[in-house]
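input
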Amino acid sequence: METTSPAHLPPSLPPPPPDSRQQVIAALPTFTPSPDALVPSARAWLQAGREVIRRFHVEGASGRTVVRATSVMMDRLLAGLMDTISAATADLPPVSLAALGGYGRRELAPRSDLDLVLLYRPVRSAAPAKVKELSEKLLYALWDLKLEVGWSVRSAKECAVLAAEDHTARTALLDCRPLWGNPEVYRELEQEVLGELLTRRADQFIADKVDELRRRRLKYGDTVFLIEPNLKQGEGALRDLQGALWIARARFRAAGISDLLHRSILPPREVDDLMAARDFVWRVRNGLHYLTGRKEDRLTFELQVQIAEQLGYRPGPDVKPVELFMRHYYLAASAIKRSADALVARCEEVGPRSRPSERKLDHELKIFNGKLTLTSQDLLARDPTAIVRLFAAADREGLQLYSWARDRVGHELWRIGDRVRELPEVAACLRQMFVRPGTRGDFLTSMHELGVLGALIPEFGQTTARALHDLYHVYTVDVHCIFVVLRLYQLRNGELAEQEPSLTRLMQDLARPLPLYLAGLMHDAGKGLGHGHAERGAKMMRQVAARLHLSQQDAEDSEALVGQHLLMSHVSQRRDLSDPEMIESFARQVGSAERLKMLYLLTYADMCSVAPETWNDWKSRLLKELFEKALVALQGKEQLGEAGPAADLRTQLLERAPAAEVDAFLATVPERYLRQVRPKEALRHLRLLRRARKAPLGAALLHRSGHTELTLCAADRPGLLSIFAGALAAHRIDIMDAQIFSTGDGRALDIFAVRGPRGGPVEHDRWKAARADLVAALAGSLDVEALLARRASSGLAARFVPQVDTHVAIDNRAAADATVLDVYAQDRLGLLHTISRTLFEQGAEISLAKITTEGNRAADGFYVRKDSKKIEDPQLLEQLELALRRALGG
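output
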């Protein structure tokens, strides 16, 4: 089989800088404490030492260098303080100062806490008082130096009692290291606690630490790919590695990462990756401490930008420095999680158990102790195609891979080159894995974790850990794409039947789901490669389809789905769904009813997998409406869901209202209104217009599933939408959609879909206050601009968010009688007010506004006319675009 073809290996971290700690330690000043000015002399020395280490960090020192040098600096500080303080304390019994936790491991970040224990051996009645005197003097000195200290004073027996009661205390003691004092006292601690911890209590300790690891992951997000990760506690963070190393120490007596290699617990490749990953996270965490001047472990958006700059990241082709930096962080966190999980699995596999169980599946594979593994060590070297069969069997049997089998996959992954991935039997096996009845798609996650999926489909592999620096995309590109496919499997298997019954039926009825699964995996493969990622992704999908030997129809469908995967969300959220011509145009673009069904399912899965709150009832309703109307158009029937002609509407309205009033109403509302309104809605609007003629404002609030419908009626005038939008925004009422109608008798009938500040329905008190301001604004007694300015200045300090470029796109093909403006800008309080006011000032009339927010990015569509006509003059369009860009700061 192939051994020399170039392989698509997973992207990797840059190698860590060389360890220069001896240079840094040699550069530290000598600490000579002054007994008469102990704290001032210590403070000056500490400041000088910190500056030496910080300078090396800025110049590119490794993370290991900085944490080791910082630990040495603190060792010297504490030894000097203890020498001076103990010399002034008469009749002191034998004592020993020891470091715990990260400090005990010599992994002290620049502003981390000092975890210390003062050990003593009671020899006479006066001893406790003397130990207390020493303890207080040292602790007060450390506090005066502004150091955060975790402090305890105990005998060896007291430590043993505490360790027996609390596994967290046992863990801290596991990293204990003597700093100063009587060595015999420290040796007693080792005999009392550490020896027993690593023998009789090992199994319970391992069980406790495994449980702690799982609970902590749930608490801190249960994913490596958080927008603002915690470098210490999050999944794939330093605590993951520390927990796994504690478990390995209890099971194998392994003292650190290097010992894992010496004892053949982890293979060399994995140890190298792990050490590079740990060093990268250390460098980032050190940078956070230096930037903030405090113990800071959360990598926020603002700090991500600064750390990327500090570590020397520069813009690349079509990628921001911060996105390249975050990609490296996610690669490091993934490597730590992968190795930590593998290490824990090895420790559990060799734990106490009955006789080993073994059952052969075939000549290549067997089940050993409940996990799938290989029958021979050189199988994958002889036949790399067995890698694919291994994962296919694991998915079919519902088994995890044995740790040794995982090691072999990683070791032989390089053998998957062009020749292997293009073999017909490899393509056939992959196709069968995707469409196997009952699969939940778990093979995608496990294959991706080990780099196999990217090796077999390199077009997908290049998305690994690719980060997008915005608030909308919670996950990296690769993880998002896999989540999309897993969501489709959930539909196929009926797991979402209660929440999404119609989508479930649609997915289960698909005769050919393979192109949809592949499109889900590949739909964002073009991201990070320049403008037009959907078109780029479609070309990549064509290559994948050829390699997988798809049928012509499957290949065409998968390519089209990738190329059009943004289309349905764009049209449903930013176009007039009551326009038959627009629906016909969309349907023609999709091409067939079967492809429309797959595009609908892909769009749903894509929205659900962007972030937990992205999919909502409002988007669901819009998407379903577009799907149903386009499906009818493709099937050549009369448009589904269209309102009947005015005569039919009149017949139904006459059952509830006088004929004269109905005729007057129908004569004054525009044709576009008649095309989309339902009889019940028309009746409500008729009554609302009746009330509005006797008051400055008619308003009706109706709570619907997922949003609130707000209808406002007032005397029509230019700029009215700007007044409405500004007053509502001032009360944190978010407009998601606006249908704007002008009646023939000079009234405005504006229908808004709105929601409250947290995405829920608008509360009664909030609406009551907003209504009062609306009435005042219409009467001219309230300045909306001033109101918005007051509300903006009275809020909390704005959270840092990535900046969004302002972009205005003009579309004169989407509607026959209006120009459509797509406005993309940074979301902020009163944005719709600013846009609508600017359009009013330019003499443009808004007939429809479709409002969408993606994280901190607004993506709004406006149907506008001037002098009741579509705007087609290029000069006027350019002027309109320029005015919007100026108003929005673009």
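quick obs: The radius of gyration is 33 Å.
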